[in-house]
Design a protein that fits this description.
Part of the 50S ribosomal subunit; part of the 5S rRNA/L5/L18/L25 subcomplex. Contacts the 5S rRNA. Binds to the 5S rRNA independently of L5 and L18. InterPro entries: Rbsml_bL25/Gln-tRNA_synth_N, Ribosomal_bL25/Gln-tRNA_synth, Ribosomal_bL25_b-dom, Ribosomal_bL25_C, Ribosomal_bL25_long, Ribosomal_bL25_short, Ribosomal_L25_dom, Ribosomal_uL5_bac-type. The chain has 212 residues and is α+β, with helices and mostly antiparallel strands. The chain has four helices and twelve strands.
Length: 212
């Protein structure tokens, strides 16, 4: 398991103007740390360090050790605001992790055994993913980096729903508690599109012309 550590600096200069100056002058990213029994705290992070961490998929659903002016606390990345046209992070939100308190996190789905999927190998179907991540709830100690979706035994025209996922111990999907309507599809195997035979089309056209 990868360990993520970020270094942040507490900041008192708040507001949109201060955030713009921070990004422009020091290549820093404004952020906020909230949750737990502490008051929300505004911080800034080095853009290069944050961008490097964001290249790893696990960072988005992993407990991060955030050092703010030398004081470390465990956090989760909860939100990112990106520039609409440039590859730049404008703002980040971090949630404090409290031992013994459940967290709700979006974790990626990893689709396994697609190459031996029954619906593909025997039925000639095609796999479609309707979701790439899922919201889970668990204690921090049980937080998985991803959830596996085993496609091996999925047949042609079959659908994998949220309720079909095998979750690690201590992990739940909150939306399932809201009723059957929230048991959304995750993936399916559907027939390949049938391409019309050019010969048949030509013969049909010629026949119509002869009839005229």
């Amino acid at each position: 398991m990868v360990d993520f550590t970020l270094t942040a600096i507490a900041r008192d200069d708040l507001g949109k103007g201060a955030s713009r100056r921070l990004r422009r002058n020091a290549d820093m990213v404004p952020a906020i740390v909230y949750g737990g029994e502490k008051a929300p705290q505004s911080v800034s992070l080095e853009a290069r360090e944050l961008n490097k961490a964001l290249e790893n998929e696990a960072f988005y659903s992993h407990i991060i050790s955030l050092s703010v002016d030398g004081k470390k606390e465990d956090v989760l990345l909860k939100a990112l605001q990106r520039h609409p046209s440039k590859p730049r992070v404008m703002h980040a939100d971090f949630l404090r992790v409290v031992a013994g308190h459940q967290v709700t996190v979006q974790v990626p789905l990893h689709f396994m055994n697609q190459e031996i999927c029954v619906g593909v190998k025997q039925g000639g179907g095609i796999i479609s993913h309707t979701m790439t991540e899922v919201e889970i709830a668990c204690l921090p100690k049980d937080l998985p980096e991803f959830i596996e979706v085993d496609m091996a035994k999925v047949g042609l025209n079959d659908i994998v729903h949220l309720s079909d996922l095998k979750l690690p111990k201590g992990v739940t999907i909150p939306s399932l508690a809201q009723g059957p309507d929230h048991d959304l599809p995750v993936a399916n195997v559907h027939p390949a599109r049938v391409v019309a035979d050019d010969t048949d089309t030509t013969e049909s056209s010629e026949g119509e012309e002869s009839a005229e």
